[in-house]
Amino acid sequence: MKEFELIERYFQQEKLSWCNEHVALGIGDDCAVLNVPSHQQVCISMDTLIEDVHFPKHANPFDIATRALCVTLSDLAAMGAAPLGFTLAITLPKAESNWLKDFSQGLITIAQQYQCPLVGGDTTRGPVLVISIQVHGLVAKNSALTRSGACVGDKVYVSGNLGDGAGALPIVLQDPRLKHRDSNSEMSQHFYRPLPQIKYGQSLMGVASSCLDVSDGLVQDLNHICKKSAVGIELNADSIPLSNALLQRYGQTQALQYALTGGDDYQLAYTAKHCEQGIYIGDVVAGREVSVTGCEMSGAGFQHF
Ligand code: ADP
Ligand code: MG
User: Per-residue pLDDT tens for 190-218?
Assistant: First the structure.
């Protein structure tokens, strides 16, 4: 299969790379051309996933694709942005049509669900599978949710259960049937399809004083808010929301440890004076870092280096 044939067959499909009011020109030219309404701004974020670093090499290509696009879209959710389109740089050791078909099906599923078309990319051959996705989103001018607005006296909230992403990892890595799609395993879906909280993020506009998505572990990520906002955060371990599935599988102590320091949750953590819909887990206080009352912690969170 030639490079252009591959692009046309698997990436330039109407269901994946449609044009709309915002996409004036998509795949097939030297650049994509996007329309940005004058009252809005573009948010841009990029994530790279490398085989056997971010997903098992033999994982199902459908699952690899859903994970890659979900985790990238999650950054748009954290800013309160609406998806506009994404680009995909993919490095493949070889071009296998079955693999590519399933991979593009995974992309289609998430692209449709979040109305975020593929607008361009780059396709290369290389020694290992590497996927880089860049997402573009729209946000009303000067109203993106950032990490820098938290104030002493605000409350700290999360959008949903924590720890499931980290709890899913041992399951994903041990699965002896990795080549087959393990769609029955609810836990592994937390890893392969961590649905980005796009609507939730948009609903926090004008409500949250700061916001981020929990990708590297709650404590480590909230420390970013502390730094950027020049505040401290006091978390109450008893209020951290844990799923029954996680508690049953790992018990209270390990589940809490995963929730505080594991990664891959892709829930939103944010601060606000008050927020009806969030799960209240702590307070913004004077200080410079995160502290947790009600438990002992080991390790802070995930870092590559
Ligand atoms: P150029 O040589 O001008 O950089 P390419 O040959 O790399 O263009 O790509 C041709 C067209 O196909 C471009 O519009 C590019 O955005 C698109 N494209 C290439 N690879 C991908 C991909 N993996 N996903 C989506 N679009 C792609
Ligand atoms: Mg080019």
Answer: 999 999 999 999 999 999 999 999 999 99
User: Is the Cβ–Cβ distance between 94 and 1 less than 8 Å?
Assistant: no
Whole-number Å distance between alpha carbons of 207 and 4:
46
Ligand 1 atom nearest to 29, measured from its CA: 14
* 3-class SS of residue 185: coil
For residue 88, what are its two tokens? 């995909």
Domains of the chain (ranges, CATH numbers): 3-140 (3.30.1330.10), 155-293 (3.90.650.10)
Residue list, ligand 1 pocket, CB within 6 Å: 7, 11, 27-30, 88, 90, 118, 120-123
Span from the CA of 14 to the centroid of ligand 2 (angstroms):
21
Give the model confidence (pLDDT) of 72-115 as tens digits: 999 999 999 999 999 999 999 999 999 999 999 999 999 999 99
Whole-number Å distance, alpha carbon 120 to ligand 1 midpoint, is 6
CA of 236 to the centre of ligand 1 (A): 49
